[in-house]
Amino acid sequence: MRKRNERFFLRFLATGIVFILGVMSLHAQPANQQHYDIAAYVWPGYQPDARFKDIGVFKDGKGEWEAIYNAKPKFPGDKQPEVPLWGYTNEADPKAVEQKIDAAVSHGVNVFIYDWYWYDGRSFLENGLDKGFLGASNRNKMKFYLMWANHDHSSYLDYTTDDKSKIYWRGGVDRPTFNTMIVHIIKDYFSQPNYYKINGEPVISIYELSTFIKGMGGIKQAKDALDYFTQKTKEAGFPGLHLQGVLWGAIPSNLSAVPGDTTVTQNNTILALGFKSLTNYQWIHYVSPDRYDKWGDKAIAGWATFSKEFTVPYFPHVSISWDNNPRFPKTLQPMVTNATPAEFKRFLLQAKEYVDSHPNQPKLITINAWNEWAEGSYLEPDKEHGYGYLDAVKEVFGGK
Question: N or C, which terminus of the chain has less Cβ within 10 Å?
Fold first, then answer.
């Protein structure tokens, strides 16, 4: 009997110790270790894509790096040219991407949103994802998903001219093209083990909803196409498809003017098409350039409007800056000024507060961008701030 009591006491003591250690560990966890998905957009234009030759740009063979290192200051104190700390790396090189993944994940960025293109029946700039990211040995450290950048592709990309009116490829697609495109997406991307999902559903974002609707021929045809996309995704073994829309303007935005229908509201359109969430790509899409602190405050004020006007979750977005002067050789373009990692951190804290106050939706925050060098908005370290912007992410959300 005494031995049995001793065994019972020891078991009780061990259980108590485990419980106490667990409580101590829980209280020892810093607040920023709670899980958040910090997703940075990736512009895969810093690579020698063969289709650049088709449109006669970036003849140095380094992609848009050519615009970055050829940028000239346009006024005293202009920071151009911006200089990447890691050099002018080829984003289709898996070794270069391995460095990016390690830096991102260690600073709390755990998702890349790849800008993804489909023009004239075939892909554009896919090697950055296919060869670079998916070829990286550490690729499974982080998730990724696609943002279908379905805008017209124009001479906006040609840094040698200020005439941006030339259209190389149209972004709108018809239904047969769409059907071909989604077969590729489901087979080659959704199937990847590190493709980002919400509730088991692969997430895909569409950049210009109005362009998509017009390409399909109207709301009904667009809905049919997206229903088919969902059906094919389910047939591939997933519980569904998580469609994410990109918000451009303040309410009402470009979706309120769908041709032939003057009654449709933006929220009705989002619901009718089956979208399950919304976010932004860049603050410049709905707030004019200003000092960074004022610009960000105005942009963040829109979050409450987005949350109120839509019945699907809005995921907050934070932009780092805006300066697209490397793409304009002769004219000074409006730009955001006085951007700093400290102000960026302040906006990240507000994004964290927003997702914490919406506990019924995933803790997803989008950032522009990982590498929009030609638009002055990038997390990648440069000679001016070093790792300052990445450090700001880590200070707010932690890192692995």
Answer: N
